[in-house]
Amino acid sequence: MAAATRAAATAAGARQVTRRNFAEALRDLAAHVEACDYVAIAAQKTGAPTGWRRALPVDTPETAYLKAKLAAESFQPLHFAVCPFRIDDAAPSSSTLVAYPYNFHLFPRDELQLGMPSYSFSCQSSYLSSMAHRGFDFNMCIYDGISYLSRVQESLARQNIFIPHIRQLSPSPSTSIADSVFVSRIKSGIDYWQKGLKKTSKKADGSLVSTLRELILGGETYGSRPNIRIDVCSDRQVQLVLEAVNHISDDLVPLVVPDKAGAARSVRVIFTSSMEDKNHLLMDIKRSEDEHNLKFRGFREVIDLLSTSQKPIISYSCLNDFTMIHSKFVAPLPPNLHEFMCSLRMVFSNIIDISHMWREIGPLRKAKNIQAALSYIQRQYFVPMDVEVPQQDGNNSVTKSGENVLRIMKLFAKLSNLLKISPNGQSHYGEKCHTVEEYSYIFYPDCKAEESEDAKCSNESETTRPVRTDNVVFLWGFRETSVKELRSRLASLHHAFSKDFELKLLDKSCSALIFNSSDTAIELLRAINSQSPSLNNFFSEGLKAAGFDVYRKICRLGLWDSDLAEALECVSSESSTTMLSGNGTDEIYWNTSLMLDLNEYLEC
Amino acid sequence: MQSSRRILLRLRAPTETLLSRMLSSSPSYGGGGGGVAVKQVTRGNLADALEELRARVRDAAFVGIDLEMSGVTSAPWRDTFEFDRADVRYLKLRDSAERFAALQLGVCPFRWDPAKSSFVAHPHNFFIFPHNELLNDCSSHEFLCQTTSIDFLANYQFDFNTCFREGIYYLSRTQEEEALQKLYKLHHNDISAYPNTCEEEEDTPLKSAADILFTERMKIKFNEWRNSIVGNQRVDGHGSENIKFADQFQTVFFKMRPAVMLDGFTSHQLNLIRQVLRKRFRDLVYVCTFCEDGLSEKRVVYTDTNDDKILLMKDVREDLLKSREARVKSAVGIRHVIDLLASERKLIVGHSCFLDILQVHSKFVGPLPSSMEEFALSINKVFPHIADTRHLLSVNEAIQYRMRKKSKSLSSAFSLLCPELHAPDEKSFTLSPVKIEVESDETVLSCFTSGAKHEAGYDAFMTGCVFVQLCDYLGIKFEHLSPLENLATNINLKKHINLLAPCWNSGTVVDLSTGTERPHPGYKRRYPVTVYDNVVLIWGFQSKVRPKDIKDCICKVFGPASLTSVFPIDSTSVLVQFSKRESVDDFMDLKATLDCTDSAISALHPLSTILEGGQTRAAKYDTYRDICGSSVSKFSFADQAEAVCSTSNAEFKSKESNAADGYGAYESALDGTVPSTVEQAEGTKSGSKNQGENDFSLQDILDALQDGKELSGKRMRNA
């Protein structure tokens, strides 16, 4: 608990970022990321999957990914904590953690009126309620949260929204007579206008006269600068106008104005009074483009920044967080894990799941969450560490992800001390150190629905054994009952149940049986499919069973809306004949939080 | 309400904080609160507010209501269209009511005061939050938010913090029944299984030395405590023999028996204690009770005899039952308000309130039935009289004349019909015929804030005001209204009661007392009346194909007069209405045939524009209904349709047969004649169901990633 309060105290120093101060915060963050070795991230979403939709011990990496995909697509991140940090270990006895925590508040506001980034999102009331209880400011988040577009959404938006821009003059092919007539007409038009401008600038007219002149000459002002609009009807004409302008004078800046469909509608020629003034104008245009880009990308600028910095990114529930990041800020999630991994690698080269790191230390393996791991290290190891948060913010709003990111960072610092990891693989004293890359891209899907705040280590037996998916049989159709009762009931129903097997309830309507040999499981399923008379009692009890393929299929089809039993029933009844084809068996890690070495998924 | 919610208004700058709304009552504020005091009700003051409201509703002539929801449509294609068939429209509205949460309930009783000859209104604004720890069913805890709706509410300074922190919970009638039933069953089991429960519990193995030591220690301590009680019946905790143990148990009394509070033990330790008691002390009973705040208190109670023990256990069980019942009752929360309105059988007035009523049914009564008729009958039992001001606006010619060229939204009607309430400072308006006052007679004003547009309480008030003025147009004289007379049975109003438009563009009116839906005569249709048997649903074509292209290419095949209309659903799906019913089957057959052939001829066929990409599907109108009624929720209609069809069993099988039939018809299709042998081609080519999950192609994604990479490369070079 001490760790928690201290984390809360330091979280108060985090910088709160909304759309009001986003631009400046982004600049500062860029500098801090540059100066640091690692970046810790944590996100707070509007909910997490419940029931059998969360990762279960029977899940293969593939099905775990599909479940993470579902969560990423339905829930909305409201808060994103980013914390670049570095470990200064000048003295071997004590090291200092220098951290720059930022708390970004997000809301998927449709800034561009295009129905993006998200039409709707799911909320879990228990999540919102506990967030509210902890003092999360929903008003700030919804009124002033930063919006964003994913990379794919941005490219779609850019097909729909266009702003005036400067176009480079491309070398033009031979000009026809018609072209040269057009150019000379444009030239003389601009010349005339320019002369008029120079003339009028000498004598001070009344405002009425200048307005009239503007009307007659077709000039308008761009900011304070006079300009003229030349209507065009094709890209070719744009080129010709640009050419003409180029020929006349250096003082003129042509700006191509597109219409709603993106085709050039007119060219606006802006008159600048000097070279200095021209540079000013170009900078103004650049700035307005940047602002526009910020409006398009919004918070995604932060993700792009992390991506380009190539710093190792430390996170806790990586599969959940990065499917979320991918779907909200990069592109819609691909249908399978392999494609996801390829795609994610292109964005982030180095992601470290903190729970993989702590599993490297034997006794810590039991730790169920960050706090458990942190308090265990606190008790069992002596790792002195000072935390320094140089930037302070008066705002005292503490959020869960804000706390989490600091915990992740602290835990990482201690673990990297224990595991002798340094950013460059060399310690200050020339010892050989591990690099953090060795831990990269190994994810543990979060098996629990919600992380409890208690810092206890689990008392469960810790036998991790790989089980082939062949050995798994899903059983449903029993009414509410306990594992013990069910087991004793089953024993009398078929001889397969007299063999040794493990039984685990997956949700209130379905359980998984793990047989020790795949023969028993296959035999049972075959008997069920052929409706063998030996199973009469089994059927008359209303029991149903199916193999892993059916489960894999419901995950693939995305039948998430119903109970597991309903979904299994739906799929198994329609394709009972193809069930035993047994296409490809995988291993699952039964009885433990499963591990995904995602590097494996990149090799093919 | 619906139409105005749909449009994103940005009348107020978002910079204005909630505080400024509370302090200021300036009418310039987005339509103006006009300084109307609205009582804000949250979890804290619900009980008091409910008592007060009970009296107000009893005296009221009618009650205005309004609801603010977290969204209206879960996907663009779920929007209600004018050409929707009534059952489809109901399914779409039902989907909305089920998925989205109600965040605010506005209730405003209007009482006629003959002395002042004016109405007196009491606007209430209830914050709702759909969270209930009583229900362990996870699915009921999830609700959807539509981004634009949330943003819209934010623009009107909706206080989300109050809503999520202080919002009132609720249980629907069905949920309450279930909870109580479960509770009685639990209680019953407890009693019947009583004598054996203690023995049946499994022993916790003593795994560590710490456990063993703890167990021994507890044995000693309980033994001492028990001896001290048995030894001298006068136990006050100050006996001299207790002094040597500093951490001696403090004796308290529980149901007239000596007891010990067990504080600060972990659940594992509590288990060990129970085990010790079970094995060693037959006269000490472990009792767990629940306090009002949901926390549990554990005690060890001393009982004299075995009979006494049984008596105690029975007592405790009954207490437990009572406290659980009380918890269920308190969990009913905001539904008490609905129950109150229902039991008083008052006239309920809303503006464009069909969706509101659906929400009320789904959240506070029970799951929504599958058809409009059943829904109407069900809600009619709860609220026998409902009036919709939006409907009333269209029944009287004088009002229609005044409202011409005006939006039918609540605020526009309000500003027109009640100008002095809308903007009290401007005197140029003629006064409305019926006077309305707002009463906030409480001395404590802390829970009152000045009403603002799109706050449910204030909207309910506005609705009531509009209703009062409309009644005047309908020739209802409130002066002659006796306090006991039900306004709903008034001869001038009666024929307009319980008539509601299901949505703004349906062009129909539903009679809630019978469940029938009929066209509204005053509605101007944009589309011709649809013949649903002639309609084909097409989805999954490429988004570059416009509805006009589809029309053109179908006309090329079936003749220029074959099509009546093409309705776009979204960018990759349309409903096509043929002029003849036979064309539907012909089209389906032709499509199935073209799907199966893979030759140059099929590529040159005029329909290839639609079929390009190989993902195009077609089905009859009933499939459209099934897709809309499905609980699956995808953003694009094509994805939704694929998801629904892939799970539906019949579809799956018909696909197989279609593929075979398609080949048989292959020859004739190429001759240009339409085969008549194929019965139905609702299905699609098999084997490609899993694609089309994403709105974007793989190429799009790769391109975007490439962009990102180039960007990163550039930045690296700059650095």
What characteristics describe this protein?
heterodimer; A: 604 residues; alpha+beta; Nucleotidyltransferase, domain 5; Alpha-Beta Plaits; 4-stranded antiparallel β-sheet; disordered N terminus; B: 719 residues; 3 domains; 21 strands; 15% strand; RNA binding (chain B); RNaseH_sf (chain B); CAF1_poly(A)_ribonucleases (chain B); 3'-5'-RNA exonuclease activity (chain B); RNaseH-like_sf (chain B)
- How would a textbook summarize the main sheet of chain B? 9 strands, mixed
- Quaternary structure type: heterodimer
Q: So, CATH architecture of the largest domain in chain B?
A: 2-Layer Sandwich
- Tell me, what is the CATH class of the largest domain in chain B? Alpha Beta
Question: How many whole angstroms does the radius of gyration of chain A measure?
Answer: 32 Å
What would you call the shape of chain A? Answer: elongated
The averaged pLDDT of chain B comes out at: 75
State the domain count of chain A. 3
Would you write up a description of this structure?
The complex is a heterodimer of chains A (about 600) and B (about 725). The model of chain A is unreliable at about 1-10, about 445-465, about 575-585, about 590-595 and about 600-604 (pLDDT under 50). Chain A folds into 3 domains: about 1-150 and about 300-420, Ribonuclease H-like superfamily/Ribonuclease H (Nucleotidyltransferase, domain 5, 2-Layer Sandwich); about 175-285, no CATH class; about 465-600, RRM (RNA recognition motif) domain (Alpha-Beta Plaits, 2-Layer Sandwich). In chain A, strand 9 and strand 10 form a beta hairpin. Chain A is α+β, with helices and mostly antiparallel strands. Chain A is about 40% helix and about 20% strand. In chain A, helix 7 packs across helix 9. Chain B is α+β, with helices and mostly antiparallel strands and about 725 residues long. The longest helix of chain B is centred in the middle third of the chain and has 26 residues, at about 305-330. The radius of gyration of chain B is 34 Å and the shape is flat. The chains are: A alpha+beta (about 600), B alpha+beta (about 725). The interface between A and B is large, with 62 and 62 residues. Strand 6 of chain A pairs antiparallel with strand 6 of chain B. Chain A: GO terms for molecular function: 3'-5'-RNA exonuclease activity; RNA binding. Chain A: InterPro entries: CAF1_poly(A)_ribonucleases, RNase_CAF1, RNaseH-like_sf, RNaseH_sf. Chain A: It holds the Pfam family CAF1. Chain A: Its cofactor is a divalent metal cation. Chain A: Belongs to the CAF1 family.
